[in-house]
Amino acid sequence: MLCDLFGGDGAQSRAGEADVSVTTCPACGYHVAVLFYDGGQQPLATLGWPESADEARAMPRLPLRFVRCVDCGHVFNAAFDYAAVPYRNHPNRMFNHGLRWTEFLESARARMVGRLPASPTVVEIGHGEGGFLEALARSLPNGRFAGFDPHGAERSSVPGVEFHRSLFRPETHMAELRPDLLISRHVLEHLTDPLGFVQSLGFAAAMAGIQPLLYIEVPCIDRALAYGRIEDFYYEHNSHFTTESFSRMIARSFSAVDALDHGYNGEVVYALLRLRGRLEHLEHARAARGFARMADQSRQVIQLELARLFMAGKRVAFWGGTGKCAAFLQAHRVDAQRFPLVVDSDRDKAGSYVPGTGQRIEFRDVLLGKPVDVIVVPSQWRARDIVEEAARAGIVYGQLLIPHNGQLVDYFTAEHPYGGRAVAAGKVEESCSALTV
Ligand SMILES: [Zn+2]
Questions:
Q1: How far is the CA of 75 from the centre of ligand 1 (A)?
Q2: Taking a C-beta distance cutoff of 8 angstroms, is the pair 316, 335 a contact?
Q3: What is the whole-number distance in angstroms between the Cα of residue 73 and the centre of ligand 1?
Q4: Residue from 27, 25, 74 nearest 249 by CA
Q5: Contact at 8 Å (CB) between 214 and 260?
Q6: Which residue stretches of the chain have pLDDT < 50?
Q7: Centre of ligand 1 from the C-alpha of residue 32, in Å
Q8: What's the CA-to-centroid distance between 195 and ligand 1, angstroms?
Q9: Angle of helix 194-208 relative to helix 170-177, nearest 10 degrees?
Q10: 149: Cβ–Cβ under 8 A, 6 or more apart, which residues?
């Protein structure tokens, strides 16, 4: 972490560079930002709804520390805490019923209708009062229109429209609804991780095997920057897209965009694109799930194998008690009651204890005085060195086991890539058969 190098607290670099922050950009994921507007401490501006002058004056003050990503130009409040904004009581209402705004909404809907089949399924994430989705439903009377918004309208009188007062969960709802179009208007600028959100939409669509259209629209601060509008920056509006940062978020997430343009006199920016899944995402996901399944099975199998050694009365030593070896002992619940003996090649580690399981770590020469039936080497990648070290030290044992492909295998006889058979055929052969298990 850069902040550690600076000796900082994770949010800001050292004196002399005090306006530079190490913090993650919500739009592009870059980590360096520069102070853009320090508004001090101010109360909520739009969602507080105080009911008296005294209450208004006594409202808690919240920090406005807006920074600007040096990579994409996004502006965001680095001191923002989502929990401090009471969306639950007063859902956020954006813009107005003015003529220009209405015209912009109509043109947006016309663009969507032109790209949709006659009976589409449309999902709006954050439907708010529901007017946009209802108007779209009226243009396409044979479609299904589902809005998701924990604080939005509850029900609609427009046929085909259903409102859910819940979050849209891409991993379940995408496969369930198989939408032709996903709409997200004036939502992303309220999220702490909009980049993660749009990427999760793309991945969920790929997993569901569909290629829906996505329409996203957010306020654009290009003009606020050009004309010095500091009043745009208050607590509830923690994240501000410029054309550049919005474009960068799209480029970081999707391979192509069909339309990226402005509306309402440049005050909003929107994109319309088709969610086309990427093969490598599916391949990585498949590989990750395969590893996770293997890890579960591996832990069960090796725990059983260790239990069998214990039940058979074998004297077992584990070679290595820190790092990967400690992780092995922890993952397989190698408790100190059944398996008290842990040795290490490093004299300096002797006398300390295995984190979590509590065995006292002994220097490996303890095995000279009390030979064991089985040595388990959790760090299979250095088993060859350990075998040679044991031979040099005159340590004898019955069997040496390493974890490999989800089970414990005999180092000298099993098929594995850590050189066991070569060692067995070579110079340390004599040390390996002194005892039988
Ligand atoms: Zn950025």
A1: 8
A2: no
A3: 6
A4: 27
A5: no
A6: 1-13, 15, 90-92, 427-437
A7: 8
A8: 10
A9: 40
A10: 91, 124, 125, 126, 127, 128, 163, 164, 165
Q: 33 C-alpha vs ligand 1 centroid, how far in Å?
A: 8
Identify whether the C-beta of residue 237 lies closer than 8 Å to the C-beta of residue 189. yes
CA distance linking residue 214 with residue 247, whole number of Å: 14
CB 360 within 8 A of CB 400: no
Strands 181-185, 341-344: parallel, antiparallel or unpaired by DSSP? unpaired
pLDDT attached to residue 430 = 46
Residues in CB range of 334: below 8 A, 6 or more apart:
306, 318, 328, 357, 359
**SS3 sequence of 52-84:** CHHHHHCCCCEEEEEEEECCCCCEEECCCCHHH
Contact 362, 344 (CB under 8 A): yes
pLDDT of 6 reads 43
Judge whether 147 and 130 are in contact, CB under 8 Å. Answer: yes
Neighbouring C-alpha atoms within 13 Å toward the C-beta of 377: 25
- How many A from CA of 196 to the centre of ligand 1? 13
Is residue 147 within 8 A of residue 164, CB to CB? The reply is: yes
Q: Which of 359, 370, 309 is nearest to 336 (CA)?
A: 359
Q: How many CB atoms lie within 10 A of CB 105?
A: 20
Residue 418's SS3 state is coil
User: 157 CB contacts (<8 Å, ≥6 apart)?
Assistant: none
Rg of the chain on CA atoms, in Å: 31
Structure tokens at 241: 């897209």
Q: Give the C-alpha separation, 378 to 90, whole Å.
A: 56
What pTM was estimated for this model as a whole? 0.82
Q: What pLDDT does 95 receive?
A: 55
Main-chain phi, psi angles of 203, to 5 degrees: -70, -40
